[in-house]
Write a structure and sequence with these properties.
Radius of gyration of chain A: 26 Å
Order of helices and strands of chain B: HHHHHHHHHHHHHHH
Helix content of chain A: over 70%
Number of domains of chain A: 2
Radius of gyration of chain B: 24 Å
Strand content of chain A: under 5%
Structural class of chain A: mainly alpha
CATH class of the largest domain in chain B: Mainly Alpha
CATH class of the largest domain in chain A: Mainly Alpha
Strand content of chain B: under 5%
Order of helices and strands of chain A: HHHHHHHHHHHHH
CATH topology of the largest domain in chain B: MetI-like fold
Largest sheet of chain B: none
Distance between the termini of chain B: 36 Å
Oligomer: heterodimer
CATH superfamily of the largest domain in chain B: MetI-like
Helix content of chain B: over 70%
Largest sheet of chain A: none
CATH topology of the largest domain in chain A: MetI-like fold
CATH architecture of the largest domain in chain B: Orthogonal Bundle
Chain lengths: ~300, ~300
Amino acid sequence: MAVVPPSQVNRRVHKPQRVGATYYAFLLPVLVLFSLAITLPAIMGIFYSFTNSVGFGDYSFIGVINYIALFSDPTILGAYGFTIGFALVTVAVVNVAAFLLAIGLTARIRGKVALRALYVLPMVVSGIVIAYVFNFLFSNSLPELASALGIAPLEQSLLANPDLAWIAIVIVTAWQAIPSTILIYIAGILAIPSDVYEAAALDGASGARQLWSITVPLTAGYILINVIIGFKNFLNSYDIIVGLTNGGPGTSTTSIAMSIFNGFTNGDYSYQMANATIFFFIAIAIALLQLRVTRGKASV
Amino acid sequence: MTSQISLAPPSTGGERMPVNADSVAARARTRGERFNWPVTIALLVGTLAVLIPLYVTLTMAFKTTAQAVDGNAFSLPAPFSVDGFVQAWTLTDFPRSFAISIGVSVISVVGTIILSAFAAFAISRNWNRRFFRWSFYYLLAAIFLPFPVLALSQVKLTGLLHLDNPIGVAILHIMFQLGFSVLLFTAFLRSIPEELEESARLDGASTAQVFWQLIFPLLAPMSATVGIFAFLVSWNDFVMPSLITSNPALQTLPVLQQIFQTQFSNNYNVSFASYLMAMAPAIIVYLFTQRWVMSGVTQGAIK
């Protein structure tokens, strides 16, 4: 190697030629581990979904039989119906509540720092543990309160009613999901230039009018992101349902994740792999949508 | 304008785009403008929704078994009792399960910070090379992959590799945090001028030395965010340890709370004492690190 005075080395010429081996040493182990832990299981799952494997021992290829069976299985269809319906309702509840709270938390309020800290707190509480706490409230405290006040329909535990148990799951899921949604909305609201509001105030627009005609349209990108992230997360719901109803009464609150995990205990391994594969493609579709939205927003 | 209830954020005089609303509020105060009391009061009332479950957990934990089963969840403990904690301590074998939970979280935090800083450094400094760019998107894909899709195969693989234990859980936690963490680190690394590294290299530093002596210390604030999130996710996780760890004696705290649903379901003071001990570490960490938690959420979603 020729000796060149360092100050005269031209970066443009020298740099693209070689990548230091160190960079590969930094990146490759991460890629290998990641491939073993994430990519390999994904491929294995798709592979086994075309077999009749029970999770161990011999198996043979059976084509798309698992997939055909899935579409006529009332338990699976029920799990998809429940999960998608639950996710849609929860997205609506969480976003409306979080949006209003974010507006409140960016207003000229007293004790702003403490209030924000308190509203974000549920995010850091373990889902299964808080579900157990709510389980107690729904099965013991709420019925007692209801009978004291004479509200007959609520005297039975909410969790024991196949038609109403999902409401309890929405409440606890929202309790935990609202904080991060609030934070994203706060970022969105603070990014609105204040002179827009000044102009509106000069024109005599009321607070409600400003909210509807300025805040909502100017945070549209953030609303979209929150809706997509929320929907994706709620489709995966598991912990909170385990803590509240464990999928019951009957199978009325069994989520997709729950039905997949049952694949091990029930011995229908390859069958649930087909279920997981379908779920996988739904997740990819949502991911692509999310990428489109965030890319679009970044360029604006 | 000051007399009406404004739902909109405060407006300031003349300048453009207040990035920090708190400073806006501070300015409003010095100018003698009033607080929005109706909104403040509404928000205070709303905190009850956050506080009631936590209040019930706290008070139930300090009741006697007799008072805990009387049905009134909102009464204060009388007499004040720590029996629940004593029993929960032995039932969950707290010192051991706490140690396992801490162990999984610590491995997960350290592993996530180091591995994602490695990857982000290599990627951001070779962004013009296709291999590194594609590696970035490849790692990012994990953000979108739901665990249920991979779970059964991962259970099988960890079993084969004798990683059906807390170590295996920690490794999976790291892998699932990689996408989010590499994203944050890469964005941060792009803001560090390369001239800094160039001058270190001219002094004869190798790439590894540049990383450990220059870049890694500079990454500290981002490492804090990445580490806190890795901790919270790992500490609170239920599904991975419950599926991956085969030996019940090696379970983490959140998973162990199941025993109060089946075996000891009527000793509410015991179960709530146990819930409190399982929640407390994450809440304590949060109280000291709110700023990082809050900024991490925003950056992860909008970057």
